[in-house]
Amino acid sequence: MYRTWMRFFTPSPLHHRLGLVCLGVGLQHGTLPAVGPRTLDHHVAVVVHSGSGWFAGPDGRRVPVIAPSLIWLTPGVPHHYGADPASGWDESFVDFTGSATATYTELGCIEPDRPLVPLADTAAPRAAIGRMVRAARRGNPLLEVETGAAVHELLVALRRARADVGPDGDPVLQALARDAFQPLSVAEHAARHGMTPAELRTAVRRGAGSSPKDYLLTIRLGRAKELLATSDLPVAAVARRVGYDDPAYFSRLFARRVGIAPVRFREQQGRAVPGGWSDRVPDPEHPPTIGS
């Protein structure tokens, strides 16, 4: 016995310009029939919440699937999978496509080379899929926009839910973020972790989808923007705070990446905060009241 609920959508060309569109969503439970062998022209994320089964890729070799797990089905790749015929499994699936899939693949959020991914838990992915299910009500004028937005959320949730990533993220990335404002080269950062520069590049590329240099630059420029927007520190002082001893080099780098000079960025913000910048993340569900 098994139970199935599913909806399929046909987004317009205008919706496709959003970068990601949801083509279908489904919830299935029980001793489901096997899927395939088949080949698709779009992506599918199959989230196995509980139970077990098997998966076979292009070589036809079956490997076990034990929940919680994610099965990536990518365009043009033959696949075949199914739940255990005796115990079954509980699954959700989302069909999607769009130009943004290439970028999410480069960032490591979609992994064509790893079709079977163990997950730590499926609570956050289930919540994102739940939003698609609720949006799928008949006659919803925002169906394609809501489900497309939820696909973005799902890809992030699946990336965070990977069993090989801790709840606070990759420890190498955490350490780089902690040391980002120190004037260290990539080789010096690598040495601190007992890694070669090549090993560090591989780790950061897999964890953040960028090179160590770009990862550090993103953190430094983010902090520089905060200081420019919320303090009266001279640009030279801001440069030193984020790891650059040469303010002219910092200004050129800032202008090249941000598109405007640091001084111009400050003028546009006009939000000096005499009381200082808070690093405490606010709770959107319980905002502070006036006077608190």
Question: So what's the oligomer here?
Answer: single chain
**Helical segment count:** 11
Overall geometric form: globular
How large is the share of residues in beta strands? 15-25%
Helix content: 25-40%
Mean pLDDT figure? 89
Distance between the termini: 56 Å
| Rg computed from alpha carbons, rounded to a whole number of angstroms | 23 Å
Give the SSE string: EHEEEEEEEHEHHHHHHHHH
Helix/sheet category: alpha+beta
Strand tally is: 9
Largest sheet: 9 strands, antiparallel
* Unreliable runs: none
Offer a few descriptive terms.
alpha+beta
Structure description:
By secondary structure, this protein is α+β, with helices and mostly antiparallel strands. It is built from eleven helices and nine strands. The chain has helices spanning 13-16, 100-106, 123-135, 143-161, 171-178, 186-192, 197-208, 212-230, 235-241, 247-258, 262-269, and strands at 2-8, 21-30, 35-38, 43-56, 62-66, 69-73, 79-83, 89-97, 116-118. Strands 1, 2, 3, 4, 5, 6, 7, 8 and 9 form a nine-stranded antiparallel sheet that branches. A hairpin with a 5-residue loop joins strand 4 (43-56) and strand 5. Helix 3 packs antiparallel against helix 4 and helix 9 packs across helix 10. The termini are far apart. The model has no long low-confidence stretch (mean pLDDT 89).
Short description:
This protein has 292 residues and is an alpha+beta fold. The protein has 11 helices and 9 strands.
